[in-house]
Amino acid sequence: MKRLLIALLVALSCAACKTMPTKEEADKAAAEAAANDPKVQIAKQAAANYAADSTLIPFDKMSAKLSPVGEAQLVLLMPSLKTAKSIVVRGHCYRNDIGNAKAAAQTRAANVREYLVDAGIPSSKIVLRYDTERSLHAVRLVVDN
Fold first, then answer.
1. Taking the model in full, what pTM does it have?
2. Per DSSP, what are the bridge partners of residue 128?
């Protein structure tokens, strides 16, 4: 019985000695948790794409669907797109990579056009084009201010 009481006393004293994390440790843990957040990762990738070439919206090689990174990049472009006189949306799909590259390029351009119209840009300002000659899987926006 005496040993049980001593073990309980030691356990309680050890639990009381546990230190609280410092503010720096707590901030570091919060930053690590935020860095693992998918929304933060999407925003970082969109910002990197925007910095590299703001008018090039990348697509996966075998996809015509606008990715979350592409949508975030379009959100970054939206202020200049809303004031544009005209916007040429050129879908790219390299013909040596995909069998029906023309259809894929047109679908990519149409998906971006649909996103822009849903965001409030008049469809009369948007012109669709496609390109299957360049080794790109993307949509390029040409903005005329």
1. 0.72
2. 89
